[in-house]
Amino acid sequence: MTTGQGGRRRKRRKKTDRRAVYIRAGILALIALSLILGIYSCVSGGRRNLDVDASEPDIDVQLLDVNAYSRPGIETEGINGIVIHYTANPGSTAQENRDYFNDLQYTHTTEASSNFIIGLEGEIIQCVPTWEVAYASNERNFDTVSIECCHPDESGEFTDETYRSLVQLTAWLCMKFDLTEEDVIRHYDVTGKSCPKYFVDHEVEWEEFRLNVRKAMDRSREN
Q: Is 78:143 a contact under the CB 8 Å cutoff?
């Protein structure tokens, strides 16, 4: 064997070795990606594949007293959208937030309310009729329905129970007022305020929520 032949064989072996390294690295990368996707699927798969329709959910009607600070008794100009909010009060319940709104007639600390509040366990309390203005969405108070959502911690992420009720309630309201998921907006989209925080911080999750609303409406139409 000549020196030239030996050199060529060594070069071929090096190329083969490099190719094997690249293949192993690719396989490891695919395994890592599969693990990440698997974990994500376990965490969010239930939210991506919700078996929820747009039927009317169970609603605990506890209307606020008519007063200047939380339920002015003013009729809306017609509903053109649904606005999603979060309470910004981690760990508080739907009942506590409802009672806070009602007590504003005595404390006079601010003007605030919402048509609906969804609690940590998915319970829904209605505070203001949908044909009346709630003090929630600034300049959109007169043509939207507002939904306030409780959350367990500072991240603003909703529990699965809250999320499920939010999808169903939003879909039902969309069907009731002949709206689409594109008419569902965040408080952030009105004022730039980080509300609801988790859906502002995670745009993909917000779009997925609206997709789930559309799927819920589609299920009801199919049935």
A: yes
pLDDT tens series, the chain, 223 aa? 555 555 555 656 656 566 666 667 666 666 555 454 444 444 444 565 688 999 999 999 999 999 999 999 999 999 999 999 999 999 999 999 999 999 999 999 999 999 999 999 999 999 999 999 999 999 999 999 999 999 999 999 999 999 999 999 999 999 999 999 999 999 999 999 999 999 999 999 999 999 999 999 999 999 8
Amino acid at 36: I
Q: Which residues pair with 149 in a beta bridge?
A: 86, 118
Bridge partners for 82 per DSSP: 145, 184
Q: Give how far Cα 191 sits from Cα of 123, 166, 172, 179, Å.
A: 27, 21, 25, 21
Rounded Cα distance, 97 and 113, in Å: 9
Alpha carbon separation from 51 to 48, 54, 145 (Å, rounded): 9, 10, 24
